[in-house]
## 1
Amino acid sequence: MKTPDTIADYLVALNASLVTSLDRAERILTEIEDYLRNDANERVARGATAQEAERAAIAQLGPPHEVARRFGSDLSGSLNEHLWRNLERFDRWRLYHPWLGAIVVPTLPVTAFFAGMTLLMAPLLGSSHGPPNDWWVIIVLSSLLTFAAYGARNRALLGRPEPSFRTRQGQWSMEHPWLAASVAMSPIIIGVTRGIPTPQGVSFLTVFGLLVFLKMGFGHRGHATRPQPHPDALDSAPPVVTRPSLIAASVSFLERHWFSIALPAAWVVIFRRWDLPVLLVAGWLTQRVAVSLVGRKRDAATPAARYSAWAHEHPWLEPVLGFGASLIPLLTWIIWTSGPFPRLLWIMLPLCLMVAIVVIRLATAARKQHKESLPQDLLADAERI
Amino acid sequence: MRADALRGHLELLLLAILAAGPMHGYAVIQELRRRSSGRFELAEGTVYPALQRLERSGLVASSWSAESGRRRRIYTLTKRGSRALVERRSEWAAFSQGVAAVLGQAT
């Protein structure tokens, strides 16, 4: 992979390689930008041109993917962070199996999506609003289109020069923002064209899918159009890393938060009901309380670090707490309003359990790998402390 | 000195530098270069992750400050970090004495 020549390009490449939360990415990029500008300024003061100074400062720091690897992934311990970190092994496999990856990758989230949606919607709306009779046609069409779209995209990634699947995918998405959004959203686009009905006669997925599609598209576009500082004005150049530019540019931010934003919004707009958003907020609060409680006796500087310490001691409990606590209010409400075991709950429960087991297995296996990749002296210190 | 020879000691060096007072990351790197007289072949990209690891361990605290329109993260040694520095310094002294004894000082 060619190392970028300018500080701005370097920061874009580093951002694409980081596997972490928006807050931590902002901190890392701000510090690295500060370092690069200071180092380049010193070189300019010693007689180098601005371009030479930037190139030398970048060379001194190291390639962006290598620097990103040194920062590792976030240890804040949430389920999302675990998944991001732990999918690295899976990424290596799917890079060299484009067609198998194309089948496996969308199948898991789509299964979780339909299972989750059915679990959420059916008990709240009543059993008369179950899937339509031609559901299987939608599933088959969605699957075929999705497999083809992902397979073609993965084949295109095989010939790219970047070092990992994720960086190849990131660069490809920046170069083809709308194509990337179309591939990612292909199952929902099929749902939109089939027009799945809702009790109000509006296609739920039409609104939902369009919202997500637009957000994804704008996310990729923002990533591609980050402002570039003038290379001759190192001192006076405005910082490349700003919170708004990161939010606009961060594909991972949109990928991580689109569901929690779009689902309650669509629910309120279409069904004119506030129960689901309220329950989701209650779930988020429950999770925060649970996270604070389990980490309270750990000796670390921040709440996130205390939770991280607990999570590393309890790899199997962490996904249950991280995800399960947020579902407590919703499940309590469903059981309270529709009885302990609605018919659809029985049908969907094994499916959700299957997905949950896969998620937990991925998280645990990659956590082990991550622990092995940490410097041994750090682990020894942690154990001693 | 090769970079891999530094592995395991970088955090001790960072703690020792921060014992002089709060500093931002770039100042830490400059001080590391100055004190070592450029002897370490250190990739600068390793210092910031190490500082963050120290912070996660509670040995270092950090906060943002604004200097000439730019935000900088200022790192400060915590009380726990000071205690760890004393402990690790004595460990290092014992280790280096042991190595010197094995290698033989009178050459």
## 2
Amino acid sequence: MRPPLPVTLTLLLAVLSGLALAHPPVQVLSPWVRATVPGQTATGAFMTLSASQDTRLVAVRSPRAGTTAEIHQMTLSGDVMRMREIPGIDLPAGQGVALAPGGYHIMLYGLRAPLRAGDVEPLELVFRNRAGERRTLRVKVPVRSDP
Amino acid sequence: MSSRPEHRGLRLGHGASFQRALGIGLLAGLLMLPGGCGEDRRPIAFDSTDISGADLGPDFNFGLRDPAGQVRRLADFRGRVVVLFFGFTHCPDVCPTALSRFAAIKRLLGEDGQRLEVVFITLDPDRDTPPLLARYVQSIDPAFVSLRGDAAATRQAADAFHIYFRRVDSGSSYTLDHSVLSYVFDGQGKARLLLRPDQDLRAVLRDLKLLIDTTTSRT
């Protein structure tokens, strides 16, 4: 006897969430993106990432047309500030890694509309674990004018 | 825990003259102390780097304009303590952080905040159009002044303040490496201090308050 459709869907969902548990997602803590003013096409996003197994942030994408996201690192040597795109950020198991002013951040370029404090900005974080498996995490990042 | 790093991080290229200027400044500080009482003859001890005597006079002409198109000179701000620094609006990190810090300091100064002028000079005139610059800076504090020049004037102003900057391609765009020191001028328009971005906010507040108290007057 075939189970009714809702039961099948529920089972399917249970299986899918079981799969998700097999690859515990990275926790995204206190994310925020800095608000922009009209005409400003770039800004930075910040958050703390915590993975339960060794993982690496390998890419960030913006679902917004025309907007690109890059992983950046700011360094201060002497009194000179330098900002560079980096290929990724290692997230050692159990250690929170901060993307915060003064260090790593996600750089957004090509914004077509201002990000206003109180809004949320969608971002897609792409992680790769030690087995080489990639997973994408969609996050809604609150827009704020200050940390 | 901060150990007064006198000239740490300075990229001034005129180390000797700055040392000399510093010496003159310290001497001047000693001479200005009220004579006779003899209790405390030390010059004012700032947490920030003291550059009193540096050749950045009150008549310095930025050759730069505010977003309304007005040419601004350092002398325009006489009677107020001026914090001046360079940055660009596509900077996600140190520039907004510096602007926010100075906005916070101004708030903490209360009434005296009226005697503090914050001036932001863009190093990226290509992208920082006057309207964008005005909106960006004034979104943090409507009273903050922003200045902009063409590429040559920008280079000239940066050189005058020994500010290093360089355009660097980054991914799909470009960014700017740049010095992140802030200059402080007193109420008479004299160069007095260099602020570092890693300084404790309270220490900067104390230094600016000291300059406001000693070199400006309530009107």
